[in-house]
Write a sequence for this structure.
């Protein structure tokens, strides 16, 4: 089991969140959901995407950004934001075993205060003219690189 965590800022789409929860269960990564989400955590679409993996995930729900930040800053973990506004490609970032990988809302990303509060901002380089990669795919790519760099600790 890894100490790396995936945090989802006010996720909109239960299918994406469910896919990330399934990924996390399989890789031993914890997940933090920063409320409010655009759906109820018991939503059937979330359960369909995460299948029977939901019970295997170290899932923590935070009532809002301030509650999440209070937990994170108290734990001493770095916040690594995946953003299309970042300049550093994720494969050039030096991950640590206890990083929190933050992914924004599918519809709007994260607000400026969250963006500015991150310890690092990384991006997945894309072909010119494309807007973004699906959040679940982004989480898989970045979590995979973080785990590779930290030797799956």
């Amino acid at each position: 089991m890894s100490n790396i965590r995936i945090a989802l800022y006010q996720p909109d789409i239960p299918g994406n969140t469910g896919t990330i929860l399934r990924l996390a269960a399989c890789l031993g990564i914890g997940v933090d959901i920063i409320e409010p989400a655009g759906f109820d955590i018991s939503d059937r679409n979330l359960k369909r995407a995460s299948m029977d993996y939901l019970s295997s995930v170290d899932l923590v729900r935070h009532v809002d950004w301030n509650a999440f930040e209070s937990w994170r800053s108290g734990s001493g973990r770095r916040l690594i934001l995946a953003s299309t506004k970042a300049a550093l490609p994720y494969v050039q970032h030096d991950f640590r075993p206890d990083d929190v990988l933050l992914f924004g809302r599918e519809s709007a990303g994260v607000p400026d205060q969250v963006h500015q509060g991150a310890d690092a901002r990384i991006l997945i380089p894309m072909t010119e003219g494309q807007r973004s990669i699906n959040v679940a795919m982004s989480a898989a790519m970045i979590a995979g690189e973080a785990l590779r760099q930290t030797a799956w600790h």
Helices lie at 14-27, 44-50, 65-75, 112-117, 135-149. The first strand starts at residue 5 and ends at 9. Residues 5-149 form a domain with the Alpha/beta knot fold (CATH 3.40.1280.10). The mean pLDDT is 91.
